[in-house]
Amino acid sequence: MEKKNKAMMVEFHTVKRIDNSRLRRHIEPAKLRNLYKTVALGGVVAMCFMFYIYQHFRCIDLSFQLEDLKGKQEQAANLNGKLRLNIATLRDPHRIDLIARHQLGLTEPGPTQVREYTNFDGAEEASVRYTRPNRQP
Amino acid sequence: MQQEKVHVRLLLIAGVVLLWMMCVFGRVAYLQLFLHSDYLAKASRQQRRTLEITPKRGAIYDRNMHPLAMSVPVHSVFAVPSEIKDMELATRLLAGALGIPQATLREKLESPSNFVWIQRKVTPEKEEAIRSLNLKGIDFLEEYQRNYPKREMAAHVLGFVDVDEKGLGGIEYEYDNLIRGKSEKIVVMADAHQRWYDGGEAQKDRGASVVLTIDEKIQYIAERELQAAIAKTRAPAGTVIVQDPNTGAILALANWPRFNPNAVTDVPNEARMDRAVSAIYEPGSTFKLVTLAAAFDQNLIRADEVFNCENGSVLVAGHRIHDHKAYGMLTVSDILANSSDVGAIKIAMRLGSPKFYDYIHAFGFGSLTGVDLPGESRGILRRLENWGSFSIGSISMGQEVGVTPVQLATAVSSIANGGLLYKPHVVQEIRRAGQAVPLDGASSITEPKRSIRPETAATLRRLMEGVILHGTGKLARLDGWTAAGKTGTAQKIDPNTGRYSPTKVIASFTGFAPINNPAVTILISIDSPEGWPHGGGDVAAPVFKRIAEQVLPYLDVARDVPVSPRLLQTSYRNETQIDSSAVEDFTPANLELETSDVPERQPAEKGSSKPKEVTVAVEEGGDITVPDFTGKTMREVTEGCLKMGLNPVLVGTSLASHQIPAPGSKVRRGTKVTVEFGKAADLAAKAR
């Protein structure tokens, strides 16, 4: 019976026109400041973490590069050693002696030939500087 | 209502998200906080490698820092047999690339081991060939290979190494611990691709480098002249030593036969023997220097004292000794110059066995010199109590005593430098990381010992000059420098008969130059030269001349014998075709090739095009004439020398009796002038 009564009731919807345009949400300055501070702090912390992660992987990356450069340096040093060995072989006195005698036709000075000579200006100093290291102390 | 449903759904989704985030962060927290150490350990095990680093062997240099021995990296081939898929293919390909028999290779590859050497230290060409095959299970390991770029030069001094770079002779053996350095383990971090990103600390103990006293150029001169003498006399062996008498430093040490340390596998032991320190021989007449030095030092004889040499024959303790010539009355200086055995025996008998024995020891015979080369022999010198009745006679003429070449050279050096016996050495310094390492123990340079007085040494130098000027060593006379020396022709024992051989001798000459301020002592010893004459004065003395005349200008030693002005002729290359075949063997890769003998100096061919000549007028000699100081006092001599810019060296007391260089010689400013002082009676006797 009550259900029937409720079904027969008519509802009337009235339209309320509410103009809230003049309403402005009041934001408390203190809360806003706190928000900004929190965001900033969070950002700083995040940057710190990012920086830590960045430098960690950058360090590893640089280590790879460093080891790579060390390897290249070692290769260069090995090549340097091989070249010095080549130089030492080419400077073998026996080899130079053969070149001098067989290819260039040079001979030892004979007993009447003199090795020492009067030096000219400039050449004398160079000659002394060249021969001086050979002199026994 | 709707809103409540929306609200509930939102809450539900938020709850699910929150739960998911809690699970994720919880897991992260669990891993980071509770399992941190476990995962750290796992990562460390994965990334950490422990490697054993063998340091590069240090180099060996001559005194001018020219490398004589150095190590360069090469690759060695190894196999992991379990990783090889096709064994037959791998065997065939590797055998072809390496030149190894397939059977040998197959045996290695079928080994149950996880690591098998295929070939150690392969050439770059072979390495490239194997890399191009790209065989799985075949890889390379970097090692070091020892190279001797000068090949046979100073081989006995340098020594050699085995395949593991362990020293087996010479300096390589003697200083192996220093040159090799110490292996150390380093910890490295590697990623999944085995790339290192943390290579550990640098090696702390690298191999040290050795700087020798050997001069490369002087060594070559000595070896070349020794080789020429050996070829000329067809002798089986010989030795040359060039030493600085003022320090004991050995500038050159050459032995024959020699070997190439780059290829020692099939070299006979006799070629590897360092005869200069190990070979013992009876010095013969060269030992008369010790006899006379002892007698002079004891003031038992004078240089002009006359001895009766019994016409070249004397009977002592039942032994008859013959001179090589029938000498009658000889002064002491003539006894040395003519190498009279009879005269030497008489002098020794005046000296007496105990004092003679002491002086023999004072000269370093019968004990180790301490030279920093392995295998040194102390020679043979019987103890005084074991000397027979004739031992003093035998030993006085250089028999019944055994010496090594380095002992003899050092003893003669002590005469050259005024009576100081220096320890011979071939190592100048050890360097590590660019810093000199102090030598310690047996390697250190010790203070010299005095063998004879300076006056005795001065007297002996003068007498030794007489050997060259008018004695048995005339062929050792130098062109431009004074020189002093003594010949030796020692008979060898015939192993078949046990007696002295009439034909086999050891021909030797030991001398120094110049007399005034000696720069080098040179010893030449030729074992069993063939042909005739074969004495020390004929075979060894010319070698001394050739070596000294090349070494002295190289060392910038001023000439002290007046030379007349000469014209300088320089030969330029001739017009004949260039032949490059002679130097093909000297490409750096062919260090193992045998060198051909140095060809004899070719005389100029008749009819060949004359080389261009350039003539330059020169002024030879110095500009100071040495005055005659005879009869002057020490003050007068000193003042006179200083006024003329000469350096006086005064020996003895009283008035000046003898000088070197001779009066009237042309010398340069700063030349040393040795003036001997004697008693007035000596001067009067000389004047008569």
How does this structure look, described?
The complex is a heterodimer of chains A (137) and B (688). With 137 residues, chain A is mainly alpha-helical. Helix content of chain A is 65%, strand content 0%. Chain A has helices at residues 2-8, 29-90, 93-103, 123-131. With 688 residues, chain B is of the alpha+beta class. Chain B is elongated. At the A-B interface, helix 2 and helix 3 of A face strand 3, strand 7, helix 9 and strand 22 of B.
Give me some keywords for this one.
heterodimer, A: 137 residues, mainly alpha, 4 helices, 65% helix, 0% strand, rod-shaped, disordered C terminus, B: 688 residues, alpha+beta, Penicillin-binding protein 2a (Domain 2), Beta-lactamase, Trypsin Inhibitor V, Chain A, 7-stranded mixed β-sheet, 5-stranded antiparallel β-sheet
Q: How is the secondary structure organized here?
A:
The complex is a heterodimer of chains A (137) and B (688).
Chain A: H1 2-8, H2 29-90, H3 93-103, H4 123-131
Chain B: H1 2-34, H2 36-47, E1 48-53, E2 60-61, E3 67-79, H3 87-98, H4 102-109, E4 116-122, H5 124-133, E5 138-147, H6 155-158, H7 170-174, H8 176-180, E6 184-190, E7 196-198, E8 209-212, H9 216-233, E9 237-243, E10 250-256, H10 269-272, H11 275-278, H12 288-297, E11 306-308, E12 313-316, E13 319-322, E14 329-331, H13 332-338, H14 341-351, H15 353-362, H16 391-396, H17 405-416, E15 420-421, E16 427-432, E17 435-437, E18 449-450, H18 454-470, E19 484-493, E20 500-513, E21 520-527, H19 536-554, E22 567-571, E23 613-617, E24 624-625, H20 634-644, E25 647-652, E26 655-660, E27 666-667, E28 672-678, H21 680-687
Parallel strand pairs in B: 2-8, 25-28
Antiparallel strand pairs in B: 1-6, 2-3, 3-4, 3-5, 6-7, 8-16, 9-10, 9-21, 11-14, 12-13, 15-18, 16-17, 19-20, 20-21, 22-23, 24-27, 26-28
